[in-house]
Specification:
Blueprint: H1 6-25, H2 33-56, H3 60-84, H4 94-105, H5 109-116, H6 120-147, H7 149-172, E1 187-188, E2 193-194, H8 207-219, H9 230-245, H10 250-266, H11 272-296, H12 298-306
Antiparallel strand pairs: 1-2
Helix pairs in contact: 1-2, 1-7, 2-3, 3-7, 6-7, 6-8, 6-9, 6-10, 7-9, 7-11, 9-10, 9-11
């Protein structure tokens, strides 16, 4: 379709696929399914209109919105996964992941790390590192957009590809993660059984702890989206682009990503195996996304780069 890039096909394709899954498999788990299906159809239409408007009446605002609209959708599409995680499996699979952590590490690192280092300055560094993910995705995108739009469109295509695969996985593999026990849910496996996760009182006064608590109260409560860790997978994908195109930021970004991976476990948002799942996800999907983008979009973008703009 004229004016379409691979990112548009990926985004609309993901929205259409999830809408079709809701239509076919909603069952009793999603009584509001007509609103979800209608919303997906409307969203596909809105993206189409945006692309057409940018093609026919280009201006700086439309071009910016046209470039960054997938980032605007990430949060909404992620939150939606919490409503879908009962369509294919009636409960949560945390017990299996608790057992796997126990087998691999002999302990529940998502609980023992904080108890081993129960200091507010340590927790604040880790909560800040976890929060940096939300800034990281946007800042790398902005830097590439200002540097070379072809690199930016490769970036947002590959990052979105990783996001969408993770989101789709969450619908079929519902894992809440260690912090779900804060809601009083007992998470049990054959090897280990854990109750509510304890955060030392001193740490609860930290500003980044409170900020992440608010974010997760809005976006995470009552849902399962832990394996693989999209935080880890996407952060590593952004690092690939920094390493390739933003060389002055390489080491700082790498340090931030390492701290983010550790923070997912220390802060109790993920089991340790979720981090390894994110590593494998990024290692497989990021190179695949780059290859597909180069074959699909690169010739068209080279032509578009030489075209006059309004």
């Amino acid at each position: 379709m004229r004016g379409y890039r691979l990112i548009d096909y990926l985004t609309q394709g993901y929205i259409a696929l999830v809408g079709a899954l809701i239509l076919l498999f909603h069952g009793a788990a999603l009584p509001q399914w007509p609103f979800y299906v209608a919303g997906h159809a409307a969203l596909i239409g809105a993206i189409y209109v945006l692309i057409r408007q940018d093609e026919q009446h280009p201006n700086r605002f439309l071009s910016l919105l046209r470039a960054f609209y997938p980032m605007i959708l990430y949060g909404f599409l992620y939150n939606e996964t919490h409503a879908l995680d009962k369509m294919f499996y009636p409960g949560y699979l945390d017990g299996y992941f608790i057992d796997l952590d126990q087998r691999l590490f002999g302990t529940q690192l998502s609980r023992t790390l904080m108890q081993t280092f129960p200091y507010v300055w340590v927790s604040e560094v880790f909560y800040l590192s976890y929060f940096s993910y939300y800034v990281m995705v946007l800042l790398v995108g902005l830097a590439l957009y200002l540097q070379d739009k072809r690199r930016f469109f490769q970036y947002i295509t590959v990052v979105s590809f990783v996001f969408y695969v993770c989101y789709l996985t969450y619908a079929f593999l519902p894992v809440q993660g260690p912090n779900s026990a804060d809601d009083g849910i007992a998470l049990s496996g054959q090897l280990a059984s854990v109750g509510p996760r304890a955060v030392p009182e001193a740490m609860r006064s930290g500003p980044f702890y409170r900020l992440m608590l608010k974010i997760y109260d809005m976006s995470e409560r009552g849902g399962g989206a832990a394996f693989p860790s999209s935080h880890v997978a996407v952060a590593l994908t952004t690092l690939w682009f920094t390493w390739s195109y933003l060389k002055k930021a390489r080491l700082v970004h790498m340090a931030a990503v390492i701290m983010l991976c550790l923070s997912t476990v220390y802060c109790g948002y993920h089991y340790a195996v979720d981090v390894f799942g994110g590593l494998v996800t990024a290692a497989v999907l990021a190179p695949l996304g780059v290859i597909v983008h180069r074959k699909w979009d690169s010739p068209a973008e080279a032509v578009a780069e030489t075209a006059p703009t309004a």
